[in-house]
Design brief:
Elements lengths: L1 E6 L6 E10 L5 E4 L4 E4 L5 E9 L8 E8 L6 E10 L5 E4 L4 E4 L5 E9 L8 E8 L6 E10 L5 E4 L4 E4 L5 E9 L8 E8 L6 E10 L5 E4 L4 E4 L5 E9 L8 E8 L6 E7 L6 E9 L10 E3 L2 E3 L1 H6 L3 E7 L15 H11 L9 E9 L8 E2 L8 E5 L6 H15 L10 E2 L2 E2 L24 H9 L2 H4 L12
Amino acid sequence: MILMAYDNPGGPNNFRYRVGLNLDGNGVPASWLPQFITTDGVGWEGQGAGAALASLDGDSRPDLILMAYDAPSGANSFRYRIGWNLGANGQPQSWQPGFVQVDGVGWEGQGADVLITSLDANPRPEMILLAYDNPRGANNFRYRIGWNLGTNGIAASWQPGFFTTEGVGWEGQGAGASIAYLDNDPRPELVVMAYDAPPGANDFRYRVGFNLSDTGTVTAWQSGFTAVAGLGHEGQGAGMTFHNLDGDARPDMVLMAYDNPPGPNEFRYRVLNNRGLAQGLDLEMDRLSSVGWLPASATVNGITDDLPSMYRRMGIDARISQDRGDLRDLHPGTCYTDAELAGLLTAQMSQPPADPARWHMYGILVTCHVDGILGIMFDTLQRRGFAQFMNAFTEDGRRLRTAAHELGHAICLYHSDGDAWRIGGPVPGTGRTIMNQTAVLAPDWGYAWDSASLHLAYENSRARWRPVSGFGFNNCK
């Protein structure tokens, strides 16, 4: 967890953030890094700030985007800077010199946020900049979209003007936004939140914009808003996100306020469990009669895990079914080609179930591949099926990891989403997460997802990365 404040000392502002490591199911970190990290701000007066994590530059280490809604005399502007390739200590390898400035959406703001997501058919991500605008009368939310960020974090183009929707009160002390999935439509929801400041205790108030289109428009906005008890009487910033923290596949909502009690400020947050909608996935598996099934679970470096729990951490409810275990080996003693695997999928895959909310996938366990590999997602156009070659290895841990890895390819995760990936290729001996290639695994590898994989799962449009979406493996991210 990264908690960021835009600090306002005498003189220029600065960004300050703290990092909590290894959150438990209640959102409590096992430890906090001992000191906060600070970096230059982007002006002298901010009226909101936000932070986002994404992998922008081709290196799988996450990049940190820090944005402030700057308030000079005249119209406000969004200003952001990027910390490239965060290490395990929370420090980036380098900071972008200066900052990028984007036109604001008004003259007076009471909160702001930044999101990185993917909306259109271009594989490069979009940036959403939101401000909680404070005109005379009721506030409103306003956001702009930067299309197709380059590897330098700069958008190819910005939407003319901005989108607007009703606010949730007349006085806000922070705002945030997040991408979520709350219905069965594959388009994402845009959830906007303000930390409202009536007389007495504050409260979080959020509205849902359903089914964000590939042009950035919302199909329908929630009537009114949902209120959640706040965390104090005076805030100086707020934020929100959706992520999976507990053992349920439905993502949890995290609401944070930067509280201003007598004395030093403090971050306060609450977790609302299971507020998102899990994506359903049904994995139908067949095997040749000459090979065994995958292990139900396996222990690696002292940690036992199974395929459904790995995918629950991504907000996916994966159900694994062992269908046919008696398939005849087409040519005993000879390995399989991709064309033969595709033929088995066509001949053996059951018809998808009627429930459109669940994805139907196919995995087949055979003896070996002509190229000697461990597994392959061979159905690159539709991304429905993968194969695993059981004679290539004997360890249960690696067999289970390979299944998770190849299924990851089927939902549009790449090798470059593994933590070993660096610009120019993976670094041998440094990979610990699921999407790394086996050859670069470190001795202490496990069943974790890298931040790049989790970002795709929670922030990208499922309309793109679902199987049979029209986006093949080469252009689905």
